[in-house]
Amino acid sequence: MKDLLNVENFNYSETEKLFNAADDFLPLLGTDYVELYVGNAKQAAHFYKTALGFSDLAYAGLETGCKAHTSYVLQQGKIRLVLTTPFNPDSEMADHLKKHGDGVKVIALWVNDARDAFEQTVKRGAKPFMEPKELKDENGTIVMSGIHTYGDTVHHFIERKNYNGVFLPGFEKLDTGYNPGTCGLKYVDHMVGNVELGSMNKWASFYADVMGFANLVTFDDKDISTEYTALMSKVMTNGNGYIKFPINEPAIGKKKSQVEEYLDFYRGPGCQHIAVATDDIVFTVSEMKKRGVEFLYVPGSYYDTVGERVGHIKEDLEILKKWGIMVDRDEEGYLLQIFTKPVEDRPTLFFEIIQRKGAKSFGKGNFQALFESIEAEQARRGTL
Q1: 7 vs 358, residue with greater confidence
Q2: Would the pTM count as exceeding 0.85?
Q3: Which distant-in-sequence residues (6+ apart) come within 8 Å of 57 by Cβ?
């Protein structure tokens, strides 16, 4: 199960059967929330609502009795973002911000039993981050625990079966009166981690051995490369396929790759991008662009060969070209995807917008165009 397939012999249906038949000792129900440490949570919340279409959900801060930090919780579809800013400049949270800038700290996973999730992973080698604890209020009880993963990123295990509140105990319902409307985002499709050269296999093994994940697909530096840069990636998935974590490491190239640039500016391993799913990517992208989101440029020549490469699709290729949306196909169907530019001043975190029309893959056919676009941005920044 640790290395089922590589990209050459990949068969998605057979892989799903293997996953479903596996002894899944860590059942995961989905992504519960993603928490970003940010320099100004109030302003970050305004950005994510205005630009990406999130809406108010919950709040914790001085007004709720929280003296250490403030957190704004936003929601769109099944996606929950938590934006947290520390008050104390000498705190561990402030140190994290100083080192990394705004970025993902917590990838929280929804489980039926947070105590068992902690026990199962720690006994298999995970470094504890948070011992199981109960949080209670008038709406019931949350059980949560946590483990360390790559860099300073952590996983929280969240057990909600005995809780009916808006988010977590200590949070109140948030209603600022400003919610510009959805951009059509539905759920987290996958989240990508960037690690140092030589560390990809270590962290792929961590997810296999400690969390029971399987290697869904592997890309080497021949799959993901241009004349100048390259990277390698292993996509890890849990038993039911709800959680997918590609792990990237740089490969040797003539110039500095996007992964190396990330590691330099983030000051270590971390979450490179959050892929969010939509049912109507044209609406989502057009709405986001209208709201000021910047996307990577896809050269018009990319679309000259799309028909030959992916065959028939339902969408109008000219409309996809207008918005810079890329297309790729696998044995199960096709997908549509596009990538934002970094949403931070440091060239670190960005978002992928993806619409799956049956495809289970990750857009291998788009890697060349994507890398060339990223390299053009790196050249403008002087970091290539």
Answers
A1: 358
A2: yes
A3: 73, 74, 75, 80, 166, 167, 173, 174
